[in-house]
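From the methods appendix. Each design record in this collection lists the tokenized structure first, followed by the designed amino acid sequence. Records were kept in a plain field format so they could be parsed without special tools. The example shown here is representative of the layout used throughout.

RECORD:
FOLD TOKENS (263 positions):
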């Protein structure tokens, strides 16, 4: 993608520098108050292209955001958003997460979908999503907005690749045929204390509904989900902050658990 204006390039460099230098910045709509959602996704594309090149990494999937009706109402919007996952964002349960590489991180519990078929088109249904899914697994996404105090508008967060920075996937892979994905319970704890409980029903009623929505949105831009990609289907509860010395664990009914330690 060729960026059309110097302003676009400045915004992308501004956000990339914040990630590189691990520091928060003032949201971009303070300077560009008329930024549209269409333009925000164009900026996201430009940011991701730069990030892929600079970090010598590759795209491995897509993450969904604002999949809770309550969050949508809070943001004053009526639909979800999406960003992309890069290989260098994948973290592992057995390797401590480095607090020094994060600005003001929060953890969200999600269900990860592993596709073994392409999924593209404006008529994709929940049934199509499940038919294209080989496995699901418990996941924790670490979001780390580059914006000061984690405060932003919808267009700000889309341009910032929806606050993406890290994600961890549990070791238990389960066929979606073997469970009711619309009613998976979850308990998330920090240092042994329960912080959040939730259900997959919080994700637009069913995670597959959220993914079908995203497929339709992607089709408007000539895109879709590809075989082999990972999809983080949306948060099942509010995110929780964490710091050095904290251990985060999310336990899912029938899906097992996923965890990480921050050093």
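DESIGN:
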């Amino acid at each position: 993608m060729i960026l059309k204006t110097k302003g676009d390039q400045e915004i992308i460099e501004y956000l990339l520098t914040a990630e590189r230098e691990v520091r928060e910045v003032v949201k971009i709509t303070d300077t560009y108050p008329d930024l549209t959602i269409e333009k925000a996704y164009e900026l996201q594309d430009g940011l991701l292209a730069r990030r892929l090149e600079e970090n010598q990494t590759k795209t491995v999937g897509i993450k969904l955001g604002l999949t809770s009706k309550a969050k949508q109402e809070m943001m004053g919007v009526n639909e979800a958003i999406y960003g992309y996952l890069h290989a260098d964002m994948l973290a592992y349960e057995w390797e401590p997460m480095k607090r020094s590489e994060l600005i003001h991180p929060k953890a969200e519990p999600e269900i990860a979908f592993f596709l073994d078929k392409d999924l593209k088109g404006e008529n994709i249904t929940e049934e199509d999503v499940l038919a294209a899914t080989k496995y699901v697994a418990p996941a924790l996404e670490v979001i780390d907005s580059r914006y000061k105090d984690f405060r932003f508008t919808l267009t700000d967060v889309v341009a910032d690749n929806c606050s993406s920075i890290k994600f961890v996937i549990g070791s238990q892979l389960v066929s979606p045929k073997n469970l009711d994905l619309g009613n998976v319970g979850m308990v998330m704890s920090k240092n042994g204390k329960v912080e959040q409980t939730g259900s997959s029903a919080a994700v637009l009623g069913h995670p597959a509904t959220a993914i079908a929505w995203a497929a339709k949105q992607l089709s408007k831009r000539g895109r879709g989900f590809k075989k082999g990609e990972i999809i983080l289907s949306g948060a099942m509860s509010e995110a929780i902050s964490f710091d050095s010395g904290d251990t985060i664990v999310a336990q899912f009914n029938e899906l097992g658990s996923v965890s990480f330690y921050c050093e």
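APPENDIX NOTE: The longest strand covers residues 133-143.
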